[in-house]
Fold these 4 entries.
Entry 1:
Amino acid sequence: METGMKWKAPMIIALLAVVIVVVAGCAALRESRPLILNREYEKMIAGRLDADYIGTDNCLRACHFHDKKRKDFDLSTMGAQLSRESGMPIVNCESCHGPGSLAVEGITPELVNRDARAGRQTACDYRTLVDMKKLPAQAKSLICLKCHTANATFNLHNWNASTHNLSDVSCSDCHNIHAGHNLKVKPREMTDLCYKCHQDIKAAFALPNHHPVPEKKIFCTDCHDSHGNMSVKNLRKDTVKETCTQCHAEKEGPFLYEHADVTEDCRACHQPHGSVNSHLLSQREPYLCLQCHPTHRLSSTTTAEAKQAVYTRCSDCHSQLHGTDLPSPSGKGTFVR
């Protein structure tokens, strides 16, 4: 008995010590403390903290190295916000590249003229600006999200948890800010853009039966939200069926007789991008149907003849596979009419 009590006492003390530590830790979590800034990360996405904002005009007045990009930017949606009439003079070169006073320091008209006589353009000191090439993908996107998290682009509230963001894809991987006045990806250019990463999907669209994406009749964003959402595979609708029936409305139903267990997910029978089988089936008939209906027999034969029957396409008889409101001649729902 005495030995047992000797062992219990240290255990109780240790348990009390753990409880005290946990309670103290919870109390510390409730304390209010100032937010500590990570100045290196702030410098990474905001530029040199010892530089000043001088405005786009002052950045570009001394040299003409970025004249083409400036013209494209002025014609873009963001550039239009620079005009006084817009009431939103908030977007300029320094919004993304950081304050530019150090970048143009030392650039004088005399230096520009001397470079011009030598046949070269005077460039600013890029080292003092935000180094876009060395930024992590999430930091690049954060520069864009400083502005693009408001009501104008409300769908971006899912971006941080999106598949693209978690896969180190940044906004600039798809949107070339300096490509021209239109910053959006054109629908006919979208397929090639998505193919850069999704090589397996590109191969699927090369199969004999596929959705007409290579033919530019439909586009990736007709089904998927590239900025992320709460649905599986970033689908624009809540379910696979809702996405598919945007085009295939005749398959939506509801029907009096429905194909049990496969009504909500079309992928139970179909490949969404491409297949070697007709109608994008994942397997050929009748082998696809026999996975669920292995005991099916022809009703017009005897049992002995059924064992020797050669199955062909099930849809030759069951033409309304997705559902029907009409019973079969036998009075049952066997999808024959």
Entry 2:
Amino acid sequence: MFTSHFGLHVEHLEIDDLQQCVAEVDQSAIEERLELIRNLFHFPPPGSDPIAGPVDPEELSWAARVSIGMDRLIDDFRLSGLAYYYRGRPGTLNERLGCSLIVGSSLLTGRGVPIAGEFDLKTCAAMLIMDRLGAGGSFAELHPADFADGFVLVGHDGPHHVGIANGPPVLRGLSVLHGKAGRGPSVEFAIRNGPITMFGLTQTMNGQFKFVLAEGQSLAGSIPATGNTNTRGCFRPDIRTFIERWSLAGPTHHFALGVGWKIPVLEKLAGTLGIPCQVVARESGGQD
């Protein structure tokens, strides 16, 4: 489907390919990457979540090494993006590797090489499109809804587009990663306040891709200190109706979350590619 609709070549890699790249990283490169990480991220005191604490220096050093290995993997295979998932067997070398990709993935995503967790290739493509439109494109899903104040938390654990963070992105050390084996540094932030667009790339029952789109607002306000990204998303006409309409449009549970209102250009892209497009909530040029 990706070849026929987008003209993409999909390269199938093994975690051993990454392991080889990581094994070749020297200490001087690690120190340079650690300096970049310390300058980019904020390291706050622990919040209320008992599994989210300070970042362990040894785990941060390992994450920096893996980050450099990921850069080399991207270069070796000339990748425009990467979707990954490794469940992990406790105590194995590959578990340690597979649970240490979040920092490197977020740095790559912020540089325009989208990295999608949970092996979600469709959302990786949506993130790539959003990035090329100047919107960023962070890996996201719908989190808990606050019906009283009219917003839904939109975010995810794992890789994110640090280039659209609302202030310095945060690094927290998780004793248990969310939804996968292992532990290590995890990225937390809300995306910039103001206009936002959700772009879901899904499939129809007859084997076509489909765009599911929504525009809204990123609201100011606190987010849970869990080591995950979370953004307070407000969507028309109200949050209860929006979630129902979004769900009935048939998206996958992940989507690319970006800044700005991008539905007009995404509709044109869908038309050019011959891909069906459904708008769930619109701010640009009127309301659906």
Entry 3:
Amino acid sequence: MSDALVPPLALHGWYMLTQFVDLPPAAGDEDAEARRNRLEDLAGLLAGWDDLGQGGWSGLYRLVGGGSDYMLLHLRPDLDGLGEAERTLRRHDSARDLEVTGDYLSVVELGLYGHTLGLARRAEKEGVELGSEGWQERVEAFLAEQMEKDYTLRRLYPRQPESMPYVCFYPMNKRRKVDQNWYTQSLAERARLMQEHGKTGRGYAGKVSQIISGSVGLDDWEWAVTLFSHDPIQFKELVTEMRYDEVTSVYGEFGDFWVGRRVPAEELAGEFAG
């Protein structure tokens, strides 16, 4: 197997559904009390999803710009759990008051470019062919070892940082043009570029927290990035600095950005009441 064709190993955690939702004003002839009761019930439902322990969580974010009123994040252990959350909202009495304007499906991902390169080089020295049974045994043992680490579990099963109420969400791709094709670069080159990129991100430790989720085969883009911060200007500074990383300047393509602030569970009822 060619080095250029070796995909990086990756670990996967919670599945993630991002929904964009509008809350249109009530119709003039509508029973205001009935609508208020429906939205209060919805607030109670979402508050109950704020922390499901090992079952994940959901969060509501009031958006600024972006064309929608709110963003909902749902993280669940499996795809079926996300589907159940989606159906529960769709069938809820408040469905008549909400309009889902868009959504994005992904799964929390921890890419292991550098580790994959290290494994590949050791396998080559020991005469183990990439893609062989011996290679697969090494991969399985390594991934099992990684799943025992606290760092790995924090990355795969992330929580909303309590001190970082602001959120920024955007999808992205790695470019696949003839002269700028990420997927034809050698594993060593991809690992080098991602190491440089990660160094930039680590410079914002304590200022920005992130969830990286993969969506190849799940949605229209390849990844989704969800950032949290105590100060939204940190989103601008981080994304600006990362634009100068080679992996972004040469290979990065980005979709729309959505920015907002989390509505805490205890404030949901008041939020929907206006």
Entry 4:
Amino acid sequence: MADSSPATFITLPELVRLQADARALKLPSVKPVRSRQAGLRQSRQKGRGMTFSEVRQYQPGDDIRSIDWRVTARRQAPHTKLYEEERERPVLLIVDLGPTLFFASAGAYKQVRSAQVAALLAWLALWAGDQVGGLVFNDRDLAVLRPARRRKSVLRLLDHLANHQHQGKTPPTPATNASHGLDTALAEARRVTHTGSRVFIISDFMNITEQTTTLLGAMSRHNSVSAIRIQDPLEKALPSSGRFAVAGPDGPIWFDASNPRFQQAWQQKIETHEQRLADCLRASGVFSATLSTVEDPATALRLLLGPGGRIG
């Protein structure tokens, strides 16, 4: 490996401490709302909310209490004030911690980066006033946490992120009849996702199928869906020379990067998967971004998120 001591596992206390990095992303300030039924995120729906949006000509059905009498007198036609309703939006984090994420040639293991990204997004969503929930899975277990706007809910999510990682020096042995994978998690997510949710899928997307496209497309029709791919440098290109070992279920597998035939076969496999994944995301209408195992997650998210650290 290029890095002799990459981080292979991240603990719950370390995930909790990431709230400091999340705060450094500088979330936009939000004015407090007194109504118990109001949330903290502006929706696209116009209504009687807290923030003024625009004035337009009166239309049948408009609330006459919202008529702007000054504009009406000036333009000699009834005009209505419109407001942006402030509503909380559920944020659902679908986090892959399967066997293929117990790997890195540099930086930290993919399962560590996956958990870190999920934790940062969870803290950001909570401080934005959103409901936070998630699905955390590996090839053996799937934990479902329904969205809620409580710090306790985020801590439960982080606890599952810590417990679902593989620990130890030996790689995980895939379950014989693995029933929990990305497709299973996506199918389960449809059951707990409310229309209009913000969904983040954090995975290396190494095990996509034809069904993945269908499941992603169904979810993105009614929600805002983003795929955050965790990728190791070796999954982009091999070094030009040298002998390397990759851990496998039956022990280390050695390969010679200077072998032209091996290089060609490896590159062809990479290109085939890249095209397949690109087609899947494009067909399903899902926005995607990639985070490398060598990148600091907080720094990378600062570039991926909107101005002021907004995630919606």
